[in-house]
Amino acid sequence: MKRSFITLLSAAMLLIAAAGCNTNDSVKEAQKVNEVKADSATANTNMGKIEEKGMDYDSKFMTKAASGGMLEVELGKQVAARAVTPQAKEFAKKMVSDHTKANAELMALAAKKNITLPTALGNDHQKVLKDVAEKKGVKMDQEYMKEMLKDHEEDVKEFTDASIKASDPDIKAFAAKTLPVLKMHLDMVTKMRPAVDAAK
């Protein structure tokens, strides 16, 4: 089991590395695969569309969370290496550490629930990565902190919703468990951003 997970993780990393060549939105592609799985799983049950609707919400939450988590780690690594302000560097390192752990938990949960996750950033997250990475010096730090504030506001909302609305109890529990960490990140970036914005 552990060996197959490592193989799966290695394959995912290779696909992420090749993502630059991919023009399709990997989040939407993963969601399509999950829709097909949900259709075949509910075709023979009396629950039908009700059950499918719940699975659909859960898989969409998971696919978006996977892309978002990959963005936090990839962008965090780049900013940690290039940031000029101590706040942006510290925040970026925290993102790499916390989101690497959350991503591993998300992948394990998705494997258990037979949910396909994207293997590369979705188009929206690719754009954020590009927008931040193209900038240099203080401008990059400021763009990064601006995007992280917006991103964590969205994350807190989505994970709060999933902790209430997810139909699968394990997915609901994952969202609830991850939520305090995301709130802490939002608090951190809110407090640190003014100093980065004031930097010259």
Task: Describe the protein in words.
- By secondary structure, the protein is mainly alpha-helical.
- It has one domain (about 1-200): Ferritin (Up-down Bundle), CATH 1.20.1260.
- Helix content is about 80%, strand content about 0%.
- It is built from 7 helices and no strands.
- Helix 3 runs antiparallel to helix 6 (about 135-165).
- This is DUF4142 domain-containing protein.
- It holds the Pfam family DUF4142.
- Keywords: Signal.
Q: Which features would summarize this protein structure in a list?
A:
mainly alpha; Ferritin-like; 7 helices; 200 residues; elongated; Ferritin
Topology, please?
Layout: H1 2-17, H2 26-42, H3 49-82, H4 86-113, H5 123-133, H6 137-165, H7 169-198
Q: How many strands, what sense, and barrel or not for the largest sheet?
A: none
Strand content: under 5%
Kindly report the average pLDDT value. 84
What is the H-and-E element order? HHHHHHH
Assign a percent range to the helix content. over 70%
Tally of helical segments: 7
Tell me the Rg in angstroms: 18 Å
CATH class: Mainly Alpha
Structure summary, number of beta strands? 0
Which CATH architecture?
A: Up-down Bundle
Corresponding CATH superfamily: Ferritin, core subunit, four-helix bundle
Euclidean distance between termini CA atoms: 51 Å
InterPro entries: DUF4142, Ferritin-like
Pfam families: DUF4142
Keywords: Signal
Domain DUF4142: 58-191
